[in-house]
């Protein structure tokens, strides 16, 4: 057996092999440089903004798209454009990036958390109905780590109770549920295009809907509550409260250029993920993700599960996980921890200060006492404890790199005694 790199052996993966996301081409550079020459740097009617909206709507199969300056602003527009506000509750998963819940709070509505389903880490449809109250206006499933939430039962629950469904597809451009792309199924949906995302423009977001009224309201919200129409004099009248969520033409042009490669990049992610999952099925100690038959993920993150019992190791999960992460890291294989607690356990929900003076929870329209307890979400807690994401499972990396990863997995997990030694050393 080769000596583990953590004990002085040579790493399984040469550092130079690992390439960063997103892949950049001369086409991307030319697209951004052309904006300088156009002399049009911003505006909701700027050429790249309009073209990006049309191209993304066509790619997704929806009627309307508005480009924004972040995924969070797109989600805020997705909530507010449906008329959700003070006194209303929105159901969100306990496992997500907290921006999902922030988008609800930003319009003075109240997030109510639901645990996730084992295996997919998306909201558990079976746990939703117990959280519906007379205040509930919408369910906000998050398509997390590139996996679509199970929208069929969620839409059925929404229909039964007269609720909207709002999608958070910030991590799932191109993921499908029952053969349809997420974002095209919900009433409204927000995508992020920040640096790490499957569709990346550095920073940015996309709001989508098939609902004409939601599109109209979201458009006003994006730009100060005004109605700005291409070719018409600006009124300078705010019809309501709005924000400044416009995007820059550099970003719009870059995003359009990246959109041309989205399907190919997603295909590359899927190929690498399929290879890893098949290999990990035969490597005790670590497992790949489970994909339900009605869903096709796009692997924003490739998630692995830690299984010490398969190596006959009777050690606490946290110690095993830390040691495997350390040992694989030394081999040149990055494993990252993303969320550390369920979102409702974060300080913002424990302190409930909100905008100050307890708003929006203290809003008189609400009139209900809600408490957030991190312990109420056992599946989320177990998921966080037992999983991590594997770095660099994205183009321009290929299966060649994944083969090196598999060599590293076999090397580290094939030496339980060395792992036990490492666990002891790490204390
Ligand atoms: C699930 C989820 N929701 C919302 C967001 C917010 O997107 P952004 O950072 O573009 O505001 C992100 C990304 O950071 C995310 O991963």
Structural features, described:
This protein is α/β, with parallel strands linked by helices and 427 residues long. It has two domains: 5-22 and 262-338 and 382-426, Aspartate Aminotransferase, domain 1 (Alpha-Beta Complex); 26-261, Aspartate Aminotransferase, domain 2. It has 13 helices and 14 strands. It has helices at 26-38, 47-60, 71-80, 99-105, 151-161, 212-222, 249-259, 262-280, 317-330, 347-351, 378-386, 399-413, 416-426, and strands at 64-68, 89-93, 110-114, 136-139, 164-168, 176-177, 180-181, 188-192, 205-209, 286-287, 295-296, 302-306, 335-336, 387-390. The strands form three sheets. A seven-stranded mixed β-sheet has the order 1-9-8-5-4-2-3, sandwiched between helices. It has a four-stranded antiparallel β-sheet with strand order 10-12-14-13. Strands 7-6-11 form a three-stranded antiparallel β-sheet, with no helix packed on it. α4 (99-105) links the parallel β2 and β3. α1 (26-38) runs antiparallel to α7, α3 (71-80) crosses α4 and α3 (71-80) crosses α6 (212-222). The protein is globular. The protein starts with 25 loop residues before the first helix and ends with a helix. The chain binds pyridoxal-5'-phosphate.
